[in-house]
Write a structure and sequence with these properties.
The chain is of the alpha/beta class. It is 38% helix and 19% strand.
Length: 224
């Protein structure tokens, strides 16, 4: 089963609780929370205090994606704020083993992220430590970018490695996902598909979410 994770980066921040309730009513089980620091990526978004507020506003799983330079230092703080899942970038985390272990020890699911130009083999020693691998299908830092199709080869490779090694990590994709390509991502092997603009820049986010979930299911039913 593929889960669609609505990204609140594209939501109306003055109506976050309302926007989240709309996708929850449509069947969402998680929301994706993009954390940016203005250093690892150009934009600045939110920190642990906003995650605390989100935790009070919803019982959906909070999937926090840390696009920050000092993830080794701050990852556990986001768990304390209420994150259920915390992912950190391979490119920004010099102590990846320690950080993933600390996230799990604090009570959340650890994930590791790779940018479009980062090869899968850079995660070779980390695959057994992560509950999920997030493949960026745009360069991180901004919403509304165009999907990079070539990253689906990395999704397929991660699915192959999972089977070969007998591992159970989930594969997540984030960036440029629309109703047009969500099925392709599902067929490639993604278990979690993040979508922001395609859901929240819609007059009815709940309806947009439901349409994407239906299209992902249809694509899997057609996969040979």
């Amino acid at each position: 089963m593929v889960e669609i994770a609505p990204s609140i980066l594209a939501a109306d921040f003055s109506r976050l609780a309302e926007e989240i309730r709309a996708v929850q009513a449509a069947g969402a089980s998680m929301v994706h929370v993009d954390v940016m620091d203005g250093h690892f990526v150009p934009s600045i978004t939110i920190g642990p205090l906003v995650v605390q507020s989100l935790r009070r506003a919803t019982d959906l799983a909070l999937d926090c994606h840390l696009m920050i330079e000092d993830a080794d230092r701050y990852a556990v703080e986001f768990v304390g704020a209420g994150a259920d899942m915390v992912s950190v970038h391979q490119e920004a985390c010099p102590h990846l083993h320690r950080t993933l272990t600390a996230i799990r020890g604090a009570g959340a699911s650890p994930g590791v992220v790779i940018n479009p130009a980062t090869p899968v083999h850079m995660l070779d020693e980390a695959l057994e430590l992560a509950d999920y691998i997030l493949v960026m299908s745009v360069n991180p830092g901004f919403g509304g970018q165009e999907f990079i199709p070539g990253v689906l080869d990395k999704v397929r490779r991660l699915a192959q490695l999972r089977g070969e090694r007998g591992l159970s990590y989930r594969i997540e994709i984030d960036g440029g996902i629309t109703l047009v390509n969500v099925g392709e991502a599902a067929r490639a092997g993604c278990d979690i598909i993040v979508a922001g603009t395609a859901i929240f820049h819609n007059s009815d986010p709940g309806e947009a979410f439901a349409a994407m979930a239906k299209e992902a299911e249809r694509a899997l039913a057609l996969r040979v």
